[in-house]
Amino acid sequence: MKKSIILMAAFVILSTAFFAGCGSGNKNKVIGLWKVTDVQTQFDESKVNPATLQQVAELEKQTMLNFSTDSTLTIMMGEKNFEAFYVFDKTTGKIEYSFDGVGINMNELGVYADEAIISASETPVGTIKVTYTKSK
After folding, report:
1. pLDDT tens digits along 88-102
2. Which residue of 55, 77, 84, 96 could cross-link 106, Cys pair, CB 3.0 to 4.6 Å?
């Protein structure tokens, strides 16, 4: 009897550890520093100056994302840093963030797929697609 209780307790502990590890697997993939590796723009040049378009692309290339294990995200844009909270949906790969707190005024950051984060934005003058890859 005592032996079966010990075996059952060991099974519960091992099962808990196994399922906890499985559940956090995808989230661990986004933890760390991400840098821009590609910026693609499609803007209506009749609505925006090509020099302004180039400036937007250059600014995007300077952006870095640092995901922490405690669900905080630091968005680094040149000399400025912005602190936010993030949520990662491991089923869809969708990453959302908020400056107000988890679940409050969430904004879509992008989608994690194939070891990259793809962020696509639609603006009144065109689209911009930014690809981030994890810094080694």
Report:
1. 999 999 999 999 977
2. 96
